[in-house]
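Incident review: delayed structure delivery

Summary: a single-chain prediction request sat in the queue longer than the usual turnaround. Root cause was a stuck worker, restarted by the on-call engineer. No data loss occurred. The affected request and its eventual output are reproduced below so the record is complete for anyone auditing the incident later.

Affected input:
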Amino acid sequence: MAGLRRHIVRLLVLTMLLHAGRAAAQPPEPPSREDLTIQAFVRVVEDTVVAMDANRWASLLSPNADRAAAATFFDDMVPSNVTRAVVKERERLPLLGTLPGDGFRLITEVFIEQDARGRIATWNLDIRKPRGEDDDPQPWRIVAVERLSSVDGLHRLHLRTDQQFNAQDLSIR
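Output delivered after worker restart:
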């Protein structure tokens, strides 16, 4: 009986390995048109932050968005001396009150560098497709924005390359 169990276990393990190998060998599905347009939208947001362009930010807003709140958000979140920015989508959820595929809540991580200082923030961007603009190359518009978290005062460490030190018996706790 123990021999039969070992044989069955071996067959199960072999079957699982074969299926895992087939799954790994299959090429990943290409991104959908929706994924590509949302990725392009996130890049436009990143470019807008790098350029510190409030007018371009306003062009990303839906006609239904609270423009004053979105302008205040941009002024508060984007400093005047950005040297680099990175915006990454962390999570995508369906936007309540929209048809499937017409609206999403994007949770994004935003890193903004200002010379040697930095800020990392998590933004909530509610986006949706404007009605009747299916041929628009950028079909997403911001309906609402919210800062979920933010850490300011990150500093880049600068080392003096003209002076060297020899550390002995260094202990860091």
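Verification: The first strand starts at residue 84 and ends at 94.
Action items: add queue-age alerting; document worker restart procedure.
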